[in-house]
Amino acid sequence: MAKKGTAFVIEKELPWETAAPGVKRKILCYDDNMMMVQVAFEAGAIGAMHQHPHVQCCLVESGVFDVTIGEETRRLTKGDGYLVESGVPHGAVAIEAGSLIDTFTPMREDFV
Question: What percent of the chain has pLDDT over 70?
Fold first, then answer.
């Protein structure tokens, strides 16, 4: 995991951790106000519906995902993104293997 307040991130030096079956993540960087996380999905893996008090902004780095926010589901591909307001239920299904870059504010204390 990246150290709090680290200025530079060398992705290949950071370890993966299992988040769910077929889903792994690595914390890229964070401070008290913000956190950036890379999340890799195998094809068919599910990021189960959940909610949290953090605002989440996400970029699809690669792959194809069906993302549900509240009652709406959209298919997203590389370069697409989404924003989830605090407390809104959301989840994702990897249609093809891929990676998401999530940013949270404030940082996810439950991840460290």
Answer: 96
In a domain, 7, yes or no: no
What's the CATH number where 91 sits? 2.60.120.10
At which residue do the structure tokens 């997203």 appear? 76
Tell me the residue range of the domain where 82 lies.
14-111
DSSP character for 44? T
List, in sequence order, every beta strand (DSSP E) within the chain: 17-20, 23-30, 35-41, 46-50, 55-69, 72-77, 81-84, 90-105
Q: How much is the average pLDDT of 35-41?
A: 97
- Residue 93: CB partners within 8 Å, gap ≥ 6? 44, 45, 46, 47, 65, 66
Residue with tokens 């239920």: 89
User: Tokens in use for 63?
Assistant: 């792959």
User: What is the pTM assigned to this prediction?
Assistant: 0.92
